[in-house]
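cron nightly-structures :: item 1 of 1
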Amino acid sequence: MQRDPRAFLWDVRESALAIQGFTAGMDAAAYAANDMAQAAVERKFEIIGEALSQLAKLDAALAGRVPHLPQIVAFRNQLIHGYAVVNHNTVWNIIQDSLPALLACAQALLQELGEA
């Protein structure tokens, strides 16, 4: 049985919201000093990357509407498989610069697909 594509978008949205919650009130230095926040954020980025990878396999046209999807999946692979060392500044910059747009995209697609 195939999973509903909205479930993958829901995973992206909820993980992005969790990341924002984990890092609320922090700056880059506070994030770099907080091992628990780093672990939580990285885990949620892994979920986002996996969800988008699976969405691409299930519905390529829908997945194609997510900006930078290949880079997001590649970032997930870096986190999990350690292909490259991901430093705290890189993660922090992604949280600040890219996560809000990804969250907005996931939310818009969910609304378009009829998720309340």
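cron nightly-structures :: done
The helical segments are 5-23, 28-32, 35-58, 60-63, 69-81, 88-97, 99-112.
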